[in-house]
Write a structure and sequence with these properties.
Elements (H helix, E strand, L loop, with lengths): L5 E5 L22 E11 L2 E6 L6 E4 L5 H9 L6 E10 L9 E11 L13 E7 L4 E6 L2 E5 L6 E3 L1 E5 L5 E7 L2 E13 L6 E10 L2 E9 L6
Parallel strand pairs: 4-6
Antiparallel strand pairs: 1-11, 2-3, 2-5, 3-4, 5-6, 6-14, 7-8, 7-15, 8-9, 9-10, 11-12, 12-13, 13-14, 14-15
Amino acid sequence: MPISRKFLVFTLLPLFASCAVYTGKTVPPEKAETRLQGELTRENGQLWLKPCQDPRRFAVMEGNTTITQDASELLGTGHSALFADLRGAMGSTQVSGADGAMQVSRVYRLQPEGHGCDDPNFKRTVLRASGQEPLWSVNVSNKGMVLSGPDREPLALPYMEEQLPEGRINLTSEANGERVELWLAPQRCVDSMSGAVQHMSAQLRLNGKLMRGCASFGGARND
């Protein structure tokens, strides 16, 4: 039986944005989950999330994720706080000092350094993928992708997206003498150098050369 596939084609435009903020407003049941970015800390064994540009802080409940273990490992390397991009259900809590609680359902990104609340491009970023040895990165918006790699200047390219079964995604581009294929799969992925945790594994094939890394959605995509 043929597989139904969805294709999207994009061109390049500039990127500008800021982090999401939880407003506390009532939302319909189908939109009950909220995505927040902010500073993740730990006090007396309890994880706390202070959203970007928001004075409140929320007690973090790990749900069916591994955020407690992941945060413990990253904070144990000498960092006092992490940047976290999380999705979950907001609610009340009896935890002292909390403005509410977040029951986490997905960890998009958990990292000790790199893009954080000060990222001006977050809202318009569809996804970021990167890897080590060799160092490479792909930044994708709804308007195009920017490829950076070893011994090359950043290159802006149009691309086509193919949505595959089991949540997998394939992005391809063939322009300016370059053949680019980016394959993404929804699974926990740990950066080999920084230890940052992301929710997708990534494979970049550039002109036939295979490179591996991790990826996560930006603010322009929430699935």
